[in-house]
Amino acid sequence: MQSATNQRVLVHLKRWIWVYFFFLIFEGTFRKWILPQFSDVLLVVRDPVVLIIYMLAIKARLFPRNAYMLALAIIALLSWLVSLVVLEPFLSLKPLILVTGFGFRSNFLHLPLIFVIGCALDADDVKKLGRWVLIGLIPIALLLAIQFNAAPDSAINRTAGLGETQQITAGGGKIRPPGTFSFVSGVIFYAALSAAYLLYGALTRGAYRNWLLFSGGFALVVTIGVSGSRSVLLAVLVVVASLLLIIVVRPGAVNQFGRNLLIAVVILMVAIRLPIFKEGVHVLSDRFTAVAEAEETSIAGGLLARTFSGFTEGFLFIPHAPIGGYGLGIGTNGGAKFLTGRAMFLLTEGEWGRVVLESGPILGVAYLLWRTILTFHLGFFGFRQLKRGEILPIMLYCAGFLALLNGQFGQPTNLGFAVFISGLCLAAGNTPAPAEVGTPVLPERMSGRIARRSRYAERLHGAAARQDIPDDFVDR
């Protein structure tokens, strides 16, 4: 009876994870076009969903109990208490709770979801989600092309809410199209996630239908071309770079990829003949050149400087940050809106600098260290899975590790993709048995064997997976 109950709870848990993903993709659609008057409320629409997921995970005994969660809980509690002490003399009760509460949800609330997804989903769930990611990429690419071709002040290019602001420009009278998201940042992570699934499909025979891989590949090329964003190109290139590691560790992948290389070239040749793609590439090329000239460096040097500047900025702020920081949430756009009525960066735009200035040199650095250790841990996990023959975890890791390490968690879309892709990386390792590249794992109903969790998932569960432990949070 208990096992059947847990299975029902697990089914509901998986459904709510899909709901989280749905809102992650379409949150901007509601905020821009459907319910713009409720834009501020919809900014945190996934917070109730993640709380429901946690309650179901606790009931199913899948909520993580490990050193990462213990350390995160200690850092979170201390950061919030210190922020209350720091800000109490300057703010009344309502803005004090709102600002620090938004900072708490940005830094801490969603991070346990990484481990919950890693335990609740298995490899088949991850692959099924990938199929819908690739299907969704096709209309999103079409929408991006329409937005790129439209005037900056057109209705299809409106920003979230009822204001008169416009999307970020890309040059040449064009904006950086955000697709279904509020801003272009969502396109960056969706493109990287799509690239991971496309490469996986190209290297694994039978993973996805050929028509989906071909049309998805074409849509990804169009997405990069009309994005007007250097970060979209960089995010996809990071995923593509994982091929080098796969070829070294799993040479057998070369044969399967070779069969799709010619088709990839054909897709690229067709895409570059589209007038809108040519125009998008021209705008993107001008951005690369202009930035390189302004910074007096090469295009490659500009990309590297852009990537690493966010890390170095955080260290530069350490000597200048108060011991207790300026308070959680002060550096986020949401916190600034509670204080000033406008979304802006009151401290700094970089994530590491924001964390150090908000929480101080002790708690801020501790939190950044936590994120860094987890990022490297996921990388080692993906590498171990690659040695077992599972290539999807390392590809998903490459799609999301920069977001986890240095993504702006004060921006809800960035936060959502960071935790969701990281969770998928863990879940992709939950396979019944080691598999060879190019040989898809048979579903449980076909293989006749019971699917088991990976060793990583078993360690996460620990004793909590045993049926003799009472279903009580305190005892857990």
Brief synopsis:
It is built from 19 helices and two strands. The protein is mainly alpha-helical.
Give the biggest beta sheet.
2 strands, antiparallel
List unreliable stretches of 5+ residues: 434-453, 459-476
Dominant shape:
globular
List the secondary-structure elements in sequence, H or E. Answer: HHHHHHHEEHHHHHHHHHHHH
Supply Rg. 22 Å
Largest beta sheet: what is the strand line-up? 1-2
Our count of helices gives 19
N-to-C CA distance: 21 Å
Query: What is the arithmetic mean of pLDDT?
Result: 84
State the domain count. 1
**Residue fraction in strands:** under 5%
Give the % helix: 55-70%
Count the strands?
A: 2
Helices and strands: which structural class? mainly alpha
Descriptive account of the structure:
This protein is mainly alpha-helical. The chain has one domain. Helices cover 69% and strands 1% of the residues. The chain is built from 19 helices and 2 strands. Strands 1-2 form a two-stranded antiparallel sheet. A hairpin with a 2-residue loop joins strand 1 and strand 2 (174-175). Helix 7 (123-149) crosses helix 8 (185-203) and helix 8 packs antiparallel against helix 16 (392-406). The longest helix has 38 residues, at 351-388. It starts with a helix and ends in a 15-residue tail after the last helix. The model is unreliable at 434-453 and 459-476 (pLDDT under 50).
Summary tags:
mainly alpha, 476 residues, 69% helix, single chain, globular, 19 helices, two-stranded antiparallel ribbon
